[in-house]
What does this fold into?
Amino acid sequence: MTKNKNNQAIWNKRIGKKSSILFQKIGSSINVDKRLFKEDIFGSLVHVEMLSKQKIISLKTKNKIIKGLKKIEKEIIKKKFIFNEKYEDIHMNIEKRLFELIGEDAGFIHTARSRNDQVITDFKLWIKSSNKKLNNKLNKLIKTILKVSDNNIQIIMPGFTHLKNAQAVSLAHYLLAYVEMFQRDKKRLLNNLESLNENPLGAVALSGTSFNIDRFFTTKKLGFINPTNNSIDTVADRDFVLDFLYSISVCSLHISRIAEELIIWNSDGFDLIVLSDKVLTGSSIMPQKKNPDPLEYLRGKAGGTFGNLFAMLTILKGLPLSYFKDLQDDKEIVFKSFDTLDNCISILNEVMRNFKPNKSKMLKLANEGFVTATDLADYLVINHGKSFRKAYQMTASIVNFAEKNKIKLNQLSLNELKKFEPNLKSNVLNVFNLKNSVNSKKSFGGTSFNNIKKMIIKYKKNYK
Ligand code: ARG
It folds into this structure.
């Protein structure tokens, strides 16, 4: 890079004194927003294309600018570009370099444009593509969970409420609950595209412009669907940032839930799964330890993404229209949240590929806690014409009896059961079989093996 002769801020005519080093430091965002360089250059290319089409700048100037911008892009990619804190942000750094490369013609690039609309254009483009990246990553994760589920349809475990054994379920059904959550996360990201598809370019500083610009042209060229409707709102709006941060927060919340689930299952008390050594760590003092650190990492990271959402909400709260420096922090916040979630999805995918259910332990635990009690109550309703409340009470008495005698429901004899309902037939004993219990839940969305098989086929069509 040649020595920068024009070593001054763009506004040096108006602001006579050099800004203090301290202010330069806090005012500069280049170390964060340089990540937007591709979008910034793309936005500028389209902008000058439009300016020339509208005869606001000459063809010759446009071509010079385009050549300069392409050179700058190459320099940045090849890491030959020197970012300078003095020029605040990515927009000014690029404009300054353009002056060095093509001279005074660079001064035409900012016609009918302000950094206020420029930055949101860049940022929307970036969030749009990052949104798609997350969506693709979620597809991979869902595929992995579907594979694990498919391999574990017949594995019976207790489903919990209040972390107490509730009813027997298939492990696959449990895991597919997370597929539903991640599908909703995908939908949430998709919904964000509506506002991300509104083109901010042309709102300029806040009031639009007297130049005869063509916002519909830039909208199309930049891949947006419509131009934004109100120039003041455009430069003040960061709702699309909130939407993205919220979507990320909810997805990381889901990840923290499954992480916690697996931590519990992996604990010595539960011992329901075995994690491969690939995703475990040791202790510095206790030689026997194998800790599920990556899962704890996943559980903890949701804290950061919620914090980022709250930081942005707080920045916007009470902020009058339109642009203020407060808004500059949006990039750092979004980049942090994106990187965190991007990383967390990869880690969870790796964990899911590296765990095995402890099948016998799952079945054993499902045999604790009288989990077939509801099945007995249902049986009494279906076969003995009892109201559900009556059947519930009768079953509760049978559970009390079994508990008192320290036996499980499937260890009760027909004679013992008949003391509670003399008309019972021997097939009542079938309701205490866990497999029968799981398979009886045939209602749509229920845990029967057949339901799950069909569901997996249905999901798989979307994740080839
Ligand atoms: N780097 C700035 C930001 O991200 C660009 C917008 C600057 N606009 C201004 N009026 N100072 O917010």
In short: Residues 29, 89, 115-116, 119, 323, 327-328 surround arginine (CB under 6 Å). Confidence is low (pLDDT under 50) at residues 1-5. The chain has three domains: 21-111, 116-153+163-365, 366-461.
